[in-house]
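re: that chain from earlier
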Amino acid sequence: MRFGYWLPVFGGWLRNVEDEKMEATWDYVKRLAQRSEQLGFGLTLIAELNLNDIKGVSAPSLDAWSTAAALAAVTEKIELMVAVRPTFHLPALLAKQAANIDQISNGRLTLNVVSSWWADEARKYGVTFEQHDDRYARTAEWLDVLDGVWSREQFSYSGKYYSVEENVLQPKPKSQPRPTIYAGGESPAAKELIAEKCDAYLMHGDPP
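^ sequence. v structure.
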């Protein structure tokens, strides 16, 4: 059994406590990650949201991907599970970014794929927010491209949402056959997608 925690990219995760003495700063999360690694924690989940939905939209929130890259360089053992929302990232470009972070971390990057849920945040950042099942259909294609560019020397794909032509991605991720892909969701569309295309099911502590 391993133990992990949500990195306090929002300055803490309690909605009913205004100040948890956890600063939404690089200095704080760096010290926390290094100390938790020393104490034996196995992983940290780095949430990806551009607005702070815990302390209020005007409160600070750290960017997930630059934070993950920085933590990869200053830690040695802890798994860095970064949340990623396909609606916010072109898949081949995200695959390139993730492969680089996986190299920096010596194979410690994993992904928690989230098919988005906060329509207002998407609007504020100029991102299209689709209906529920359309978001999962997009994620399915997104994962096809991600896996393809990671695993093949040249990869082409043409779908409803994404297309790439003779993609070349080097260096490949350090993790083989690929960084672990987690995802969660309780709808039939989510469960079917996860069973078909992901490596692990991420869940809350609800009854089965």
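The two ends are 19 Å apart (CA to CA).
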